[in-house]
Amino acid sequence: MPDKLNREAAERLSRALHEPSWLVERRMAAFDVFEKLEPPDPKGEEWRYTDVRRFDFDRFDAPVPTEGVPELSPEAAARGVIVTDLWSAARDHPELLEEHFFTEVPIQEHKFTALHGAFLSDGVLVYVPRGVEVEMPLSIARRMAGGGSVFPHTTVVVDEQASLTFVDRFGSEDLSEPSLCASVVEVEARRGATVNYISLQQWGRSVHHFQTQRFTGHRDSTVRSLAVNLGSAFARTQVESVLKGEGSFSEMLGLYFADSEQHFAQRTLQSHNAAHTTSDLLYKGALKERSRSEYSGLIKVLRGAQGTDAYQANRNLLLSEDSMARSIPQLEIEANEVRCTHGATVSPVEEEHLFYLMSRGIDRVTAQKLVVFGFFGDVLDRIRVAEVREGLANAIAAKVEGGQSLEVAA
Amino acid sequence: MSETLLQIEDLHVEVEGREILTGLDLIIGKGEIHAIMGPNGSGKSTLAYVLTGRPGYEVTAGKMLYKGEDISPLAPDERAKAGIFLAFQYPTEVPGVSVVNFLRTAYNAIHPEDQKAAMAFRLFLQEKIDLLEIPTELVDRYVNQGFSGGEKKRNEILQMAVLSPELAIMDETDSGLDIDALKHVSGGVNKLAGPEVGIVLITHYQRLLNYIHPDVVHVLMGGRIARSGGFELAEQLEAEGYEGLAKELGLSVQDIEEVAREEGAS
Ligand SMILES: Nc1ncnc2c1ncn2[C@@H]1O[C@H](COP(=O)(O)OP(=O)(O)OP(=O)(O)O)[C@@H](O)[C@H]1O
Ligand SMILES: [Mg+2]
């Protein structure tokens, strides 16, 4: 019998990974926090509509440590770029790891980050030194077996004037047993750096996916994120951009397409902490059959963040009468010289549009495909990694057709 | 008599529970051009929609035979594949879908034997664009979005030219066109016309009929074809309006005006 998510399992993981004592301590502290913390309250704004009060953690087997990190080109390695798993990092780059590990997303943030800290089993650390531009996107694939659990961690630090594109893939076959993923992503863009982070969630059905992504932008940095949700039974994705440095910019894109009984909950934060910061958010989702989604997005402008320019749009397209989408924008503004724009729409596919296309000989499914592509067009056009863009186009087409969800090609 | 392309018999059509067509008969032969005129709200567009299978237009009695086959069970795309085309009176705007992508998808759906790849289709489309003197940039824009009234009409004719249907119905394609556009559109229609093709022109104006000469002119009134004749019927209507004809047919003008008023109000 494999272990469940208990203290012994956490200890065994520590031993199997030969963790130094400070990591063991952190892990066990995280386990204590996990045990103590109540599940997030669905009455609060952040977890509204995601009621996990009765979430049964005992269903899942403890994780098996996963090896493997993205492959780095020899040129990048020669220029000092570090791509390593967390345990090698603990040995080879302890200062770097200690400085950045769980700094942006604290373990005690909520029950799922604590759980993540306690059972961390798959982690990658990327560091790009000052001024180094990594041309080729780095890509990592996270996997999982039925009935199991994974706790992927991604820490990315891009130093001054450097740049990086990172693609985080979460994918599996359709699994018969309920499975769990609790993931944390921490990305730091230092002065003048550019980071492009893409997460592709394409787990098989019956996976419960919880993810917190936090991006910190220092002076004049650019952080672009794309959060894709296509797979799993339930996914909660929290994406936060914290613009700490003057003149920093964040683009936040989201694309989701739910079908059957899938349920996606998405929470975003655009936090403007410094003057002359800009954020541009566009989340778009299509819903089919009996699926549902929630989007709630907060624009927060702290005192002193004058000259903030924040834009937020969430658009939902309903392909069936039984599907449902909710959209809740929120503003908290403490500065007085800001420009904030937000808009949310939930609208069904217009029969009128389908009829017009069909009247030219296009069958209903193909007509729907054209309309859905038309809907996602502006998000797809803004995706800078061609394979991701093309893979998503295929996955969207497969979703409309109702076939097996195709995985975005690597 | 030429071979029959479309035969409509005693057609009754309801929209939202209201009977709009009340026993309409019409026969269109291959190679023929028919004009249908009639007051506002008399049911001309209803006839066009029911032929293309628009949802919500219910046939409660009668038959529509196209090439001898009943088309009522066919979905709109199947009718289009069979060769039926409607140039809409009010073309629909479809956001996010470019004209060229839309048309290529339609062309390939209708011509399984001649699948055109993007480049080949582009060349083929350019020929039609040149023929109709349509601004090329229009086809890279989203379907009808932000098109002027006249551009929308010309886009309908471009689609007709690309898909080369066997039964083309044009619902007031001439309304809102400037003189030059009217010439180009007429040129396009005349180019399509031929011994295998039937054309139905729904129009309010004799003007169009000077460019495209109809074999028969019909008047749709009171939910059916109230009168058919030659070109002189169009001239007569242009001069006298529908009032005289309504009296002659024993239809109350008030009825017609009421319909027209409701139409205007809705
Ligand atoms: N969806 C609908 N709901 C209710 N009434 C409708 C609907 N569609 C059409 N009608 C009614 O059916 C009647 C016929 O309309 P139709 O559009 O066929 O007229 P038309 O002859 O094409 O008029 P026009 O010359 O103004 O284009 C009108 O009274 C119209 O209001
Ligand atoms: Mg009409």
Describe this structure in words.
The complex is a heterodimer of chains A (410) and B (266). With 410 residues, chain A is of the alpha/beta class. Chain A has one domain (7-351). Chain A is built from nine helices and 18 strands. In chain A, strands 1, 2, 4, 5, 7, 9, 11, 13, 15 and 17 form a ten-stranded mixed β-sheet that branches. An eight-stranded parallel β-sheet of chain A has the order 3-6-8-10-12-14-16-18, covered by helices on one side. In chain A, α1 packs antiparallel against α2, α7 (351-358) packs across α8 and α8 runs antiparallel to α9 (386-401). Chain A is globular and about 70 Å long. With 266 residues, chain B is an alpha/beta fold. Chain B has a single domain, classed as P-loop containing nucleotide triphosphate hydrolases (Rossmann fold, 3-Layer(aba) Sandwich). Helices cover 40% and strands 25% of the residues of chain B. Chain B contains ten helices and ten strands. Chain B has helices spanning 44-52, 76-81, 99-110, 118-132, 149-163, 179-192, 206-211, 231-240, 243-249, 253-265, and strands at 4-15, 18-29, 33-37, 57-66, 69-70, 84-87, 167-171, 198-202, 216-221, 224-229. A six-stranded mixed β-sheet of chain B has the order 6-7-8-3-9-10, with helices on both faces. Chain B has a four-stranded antiparallel β-sheet with strand order 2-1-4-5. In chain B, α6 links the parallel β7 (167-171) and β8 (198-202). Chains A and B meet through α7 and α8 of A and α2 and α3 of B. The site of adenosine-5'-triphosphate has 18 residues of chain B, from β2, α1 and α10. Adenosine-5'-triphosphate binds at residues 15-16, 18, 20, 38, 40-46, 56, 89, 259, 262-263, 266 of chain B.
Provide the descriptors you would attach to this structure in a database record:
heterodimer; A: 410 residues; alpha/beta; 10-stranded mixed sheet; 9 helices; 23% helix; globular; disordered C terminus; B: 266 residues; 6-stranded mixed sheet; 4-stranded antiparallel sheet; 40% helix; binds adenosine-5'-triphosphate; binds magnesium ion
